[in-house]
């Protein structure tokens, strides 16, 4: 560019601390990443591309960005970045794998409690100036069996927090040993057993070919009547249409979702159900997590652009 400094293109809204952490040796440019034509135009000059989850970085973007050296995902999930296509083109991909894990776990717990006590529906009736106290009888977490699907960083934090409610914890994770789970006070079981025994289920998995559609109609049929299901991980891990049916039939008591198969999502059969609590992908949306995500990836970008070794986060 005219300035002679490497160009860092920011394509999603990131915390202001990100720009500070990038330092003065780069030229920062912004683009609205979901606006595809604008992204393809802006990426031509970029040495680094910073994204959150709304921008898709695929082969087309990588081909347009001939100068790209690094793609940085200010968050955990890499499902919006074609890592293989980047690697083929010699472009490094980094993320901020611990930046928002506490925020994500806290949001999953908040959603579970909101679903158990129908907080949003009760809130809506009162703000509608009606006092419907007898319409809302919830269930306790105390002494219940909670199944955690995916015992990675976020799943472990969610389990520890849910354990504080004196629950019995089950987990399914083919990559974790029973001994490690036992250390955490969690009984490791098969997915089938988790579905059969849990009163509450929360999923904490990345979206991959292996996990997409993991919980569909057949799996929901295995669950206990009255189960409450939470997904603050990735849309599509639980089949949305099947979940809506299971709630309508009265088999699933309630559900809470922060993520959807297609995002942004403004229309879903789930939105018509009072038993469903929804938020628009807010798991990582806290001041602290966004600060960390932005500054963590900014450091990696700075190192990569100055030709230094970028350590694993
Ligand atoms: C993540 O994978 O980190 C979350 O989806 C949050 C985000 O998109 O920022």
Question: Could you characterize what this model shows?
Answer:
It is a single chain. The chain is of the alpha/beta class and 313 residues long. It has 2 domains: 7-99 and 287-305, 3-Layer(aba) Sandwich (Rossmann fold); 101-278, Rossmann fold, CATH 3.40.50.720. Helix content is 35%, strand content 16%. It is built from 12 helices and 12 strands. It has helices spanning 16-22, 36-42, 59-64, 83-88, 101-117, 119-127, 153-163, 178-183, 191-197, 217-222, 240-248, 287-305; strands spanning 7-10, 27-30, 48-51, 70-73, 92-95, 145-149, 168-172, 187-188, 200-203, 227-231, 252-257, 276-278. It has a 7-stranded parallel beta sheet, with helices on both faces. α1 runs parallel beside α12 (287-305) and α5 packs across α7 (153-163). The protein starts with 6 loop residues before the first strand and ends in an 8-residue tail after the last helix. The mean pLDDT is 96. Bound molecules: D-malate (MLT). D-malate binds at residues 52-53, 75-77, 100, 283-284. Catalyzes the reversible oxidation of 3-phospho-D-glycerate to 3-phosphonooxypyruvate, the first step of the phosphorylated L-serine biosynthesis pathway. Also catalyzes the reversible oxidation of 2-hydroxyglutarate to 2-oxoglutarate. Keywords: Amino-acid biosynthesis, NAD, Oxidoreductase, Serine biosynthesis. It comes from Gordonia hirsuta DSM 44140 = NBRC 16056. Belongs to the D-isomer specific 2-hydroxyacid dehydrogenase family. This is D-3-phosphoglycerate dehydrogenase.
């Amino acid at each position: 560019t005219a300035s002679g400094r490497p160009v860092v293109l920011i394509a999603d809204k990131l915390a202001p601390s990100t720009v500070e952490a990038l330092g003065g040796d780069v030229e920062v440019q912004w683009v609205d990443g979901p606006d595809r034509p604008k992204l393809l135009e802006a990426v031509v000059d970029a040495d680094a591309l910073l994204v959150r989850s709304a921008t898709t970085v695929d082969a087309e973007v990588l081909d347009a960005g001939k100068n790209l050296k690094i793609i940085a995902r200010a968050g955990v999930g890499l499902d919006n970045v074609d890592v293989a296509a980047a690697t083929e083109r010699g472009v490094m991909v980094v993320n901020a794998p611990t930046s928002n894990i506490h925020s994500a776990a806290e949001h999953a717990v908040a959603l579970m409690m909101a679903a158990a006590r129908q907080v949003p529906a009760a809130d809506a009736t009162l703000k509608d100036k009606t006092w419907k106290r007898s319409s809302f009888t919830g269930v306790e977490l105390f002494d219940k069996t909670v199944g955690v699907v995916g015992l990675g960083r976020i799943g472990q934090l969610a389990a520890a927090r849910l354990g504080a409610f004196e629950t019995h914890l089950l987990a399914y994770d083919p990559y974790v040993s029973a001994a490690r789970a036992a250390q955490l006070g969690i009984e490791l079981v098969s997915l089938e057993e988790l579905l059969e025994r849990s009163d509450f289920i929360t999923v904490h998995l990345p979206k991959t070919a292996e996990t997409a559609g993991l919980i569909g109609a057949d799996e929901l049929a295995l669950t206990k009547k009255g189960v409450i299901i939470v997904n603050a991980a990735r849309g599509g891990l639980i089949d949305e249409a099947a979940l809506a049916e299971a709630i309508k039939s009265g088999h699933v008591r309630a559900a809470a979702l922060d993520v959807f198969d297609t995002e942004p999502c403004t229309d879903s059969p789930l939105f018509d159900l009072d038993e469903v609590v929804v938020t628009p992908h807010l798991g990582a949306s806290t001041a602290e997590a966004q600060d960390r995500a932005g500054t963590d990836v900014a450091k990696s970008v700075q190192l990569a652009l100055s030709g230094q070794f970028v350590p694993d986060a």
